[in-house]
Design a protein that fits this description.
Blueprint lengths: L5 H6 L2 H13 L5 H26 L2 H17 L3 H16 L7 H21 L4
Helix pairs in contact: 3-4, 3-6, 4-5, 5-6
Length: about 130
Amino acid sequence: MPPSSPAASQVLDLKQISSIQRLLELSGEPGLLAEMVEGLLADVDASIARASEAAERGDAEALQHIAHKLKGACGNLGARHLMDAWGDIEAHALACGDAGLYAGMLARVAEEAERARVAFLAHLPAP
């Protein structure tokens, strides 16, 4: 793996990512991490759109479900700030159920998704 950039170490859990990469190398699939990250980021993009639609409908339950799923997926791949942003949406949906307050939270998710994308690209080896 390339040396960590300050941006990557601030946005990602590099220790967790290194552990995943070592396991994948031992299993003979060193390129799988890049595929997993690509899939995660595509899922995040699609989920932001679904969450926005749920917020427009006032569907706090759908928002909670989307946020919970993405919080876990982001955490599994070490995207800690993105995980926290989804976690805030999940907690808010569980606590008050007011889906009208999510525009700012979803904007934060989009910002954190872009930061994670840049950090992953800087940290992961080129395919």
